[in-house]
User: Which sequence fits this backbone?
């Protein structure tokens, strides 16, 4: 699906489909972290499968400086274990879980509003 976001100074998710996401015109085919924070670049996220996630995967997100973290759980909605959120809760960072397509759309809206948001997008092969 191609997205038409409002003008934004932060990274923008332009399009997505099964097994890929396009950020600022660059296509990625692995799990990805995208941040609206100034100077951010898309980062490959080593989370390849939902079943392999751990608290360490969310610790990386907690260190991002965001006020809100979105977790895109793949093509269907799956909720991570509550213990995985501990690093975010300890820092007072909000967390929302949704499927990856919804997380892409929500990230663009929040980023265009100037919010400090990070989205972790799980792309499973």
Assistant:
């Amino acid at each position: 699906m191609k997205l038409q976001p409002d003008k934004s100074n932060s990274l923008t998710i332009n399009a997505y489909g099964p097994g890929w996401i396009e950020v600022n015109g660059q296509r990625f085919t692995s799990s990805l972290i995208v941040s609206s924070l100034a100077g951010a670049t898309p980062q490959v996220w080593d989370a390849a499968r939902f079943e392999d996630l751990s608290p360490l995967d969310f610790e990386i997100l907690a260190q991002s400086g965001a006020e809100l973290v979105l977790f895109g759980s793949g093509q269907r909605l799956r909720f991570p274990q509550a213990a995985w959120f501990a690093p975010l809760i300890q820092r007072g960072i909000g967390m929302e879980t949704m499927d990856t397509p919804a997380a892409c759309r929500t990230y663009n809206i929040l980023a265009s509003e100037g919010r400090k948001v990070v989205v972790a997008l799980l792309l499973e092969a």
About this structure: The domain at 13-121 is CATH 3.40.1230.10 (Hypothetical Protein Mth938; Chain: A,). Helices lie at 55-62, 86-90, 100-112.
